[in-house]
Amino acid sequence: CGRLIAPLVIYLKSRGVRVSGSDAKIFPPVDSLLEGEGIKFHCEFDAENVPKEVDLILVGAWVKRGNPELEAVLSRGQHYENAARWLGGTLFREGRNITIAGTNGKTTTSGMLAHILKEAGKDVGWMIGGELPSLETRARFDPCDLRVIEADEFISGFADMNPKFFYYAPHAAAITNISHDHHNTFAAPVQYFQLFQEFVNTVPAGRPLVLSADDPGCKWLYIPPVGIDVRRVGFSPKSDQRITGFKALAEKTRFKFLGADFEINSIGRMNVRNAAIAISLAQSYGVRPQSAARALRSFELPAGRQEVIFKSKAVVAMKDEAYHPSALAELLPALRASYPRRRLVMVFQPRYTGPKNEGFQQRWVEPLSNADLLLMA
């Protein structure tokens, strides 16, 4: 029932494949999506759930040794794969993959790019982790000329410590930002940063690699001299492609980029930078900036990102999934700029706290102090 496996299961069933599966933590809307497609699944792990006669078993990245189904698969000697490696060797082998990596902003940037390409009439598929109102499905796996992939840096599976994005063979790539994450798996920042350096090394010569010009993590990268078309995009005067004319409005932002005027239905410099990365990549595939501007006027952010849940003259209530310190450091100033005369009250429930030595607790202090009132769960 994960964000990757669930849409893949739906696609496989549409191609005539018999599928079944199990998960212990099932949240809306995945349960209703699977049920609506007539897919049966188990809400707890049990060795009996795994068919003895089966062509392929996909093991989710969070499944660990001791799981009764995994132990049954190993003891029977059944063939298994993780989803990222299997996709890289099958569905993603044909067509041109545009991979979007980074600690924060992957989902939004991938969604913007897929929407721009779709509105421009391109034959485009996508695999994006979030729920995007602007795209009809979470993923389109059908054979296509172009494919936008949200490229996750987390490990691929219990016996495969490679990041998922190692398997996606980029034709073009982008990194939105790099800020130490997944501390339990990558204890030292250098381990985490090295993943992205190795990701960069998979981009073919002559193909675009778009980086944030404003992010200290992206500046850390050493780009090997192999002819990669490196573009640094951002507000910095040192940008190869610079964003100008930034204007914050309530629930909207205007800016200028590549000679065109843009207006997006979201706030903050981070989302403007995400949009600029998507625009730059789309231009590489024949979409003019003016066409991208028309497409982005109708783009809606993924569910749970700056999502307005109540609005009156006195109060605007919004929910956002930001938990990483670097994301919070972008979100709160964005709210200040878009609602300059409002009191900012933040209810913060850490989604990913980890152990006390993980490091996020201290790094939260500065960005959260920007609120007028903080209520922490």
In summary, what is this structure?
The protein is an alpha/beta fold and 377 residues long. The chain contains eleven helices and 21 strands. The longest helix is centred in the last third of the chain and has 16 residues, at 269-284.
Task: Please tell me about this protein's structure.
The chain has helices at residues 5-14, 30-36, 68-76, 83-89, 106-119, 189-200, 216-220, 269-284, 289-296, 325-338, 360-368; strands at residues 21-22, 41-42, 57-58, 80-81, 96-101, 124-127, 139-140, 146-150, 155-157, 160-163, 170-175, 208-212, 229-234, 241-242, 244-249, 252-257, 260-264, 307-311, 316-319, 345-348, 373-376. With 377 residues, it is an alpha/beta fold. It has an eight-stranded mixed β-sheet. Helix 3 links the parallel strand 3 and strand 4 (80-81). It is globular, with a radius of gyration of 21 Å. The two termini are 27 Å apart.
Please state the structural category: alpha/beta
Q: Give the helix level as a range of percent.
A: 25-40%
Shape: globular
In which order are the strands of the major sheet placed?
Answer: 7-6-8-5-11-12-13-14
Strand content: 15-25%
Query: Main β-sheet: number of strands, strand sense, barrel status?
Result: 8 strands, mixed
Instruction: Outline the low-pLDDT stretches.
Output: none
For the CA atoms, what is the radius of gyration? Answer: 21 Å
Q: What gap, in angstroms, lies between the N and C termini?
A: 27 Å
Number of strands: 21
Mean pLDDT score: 92
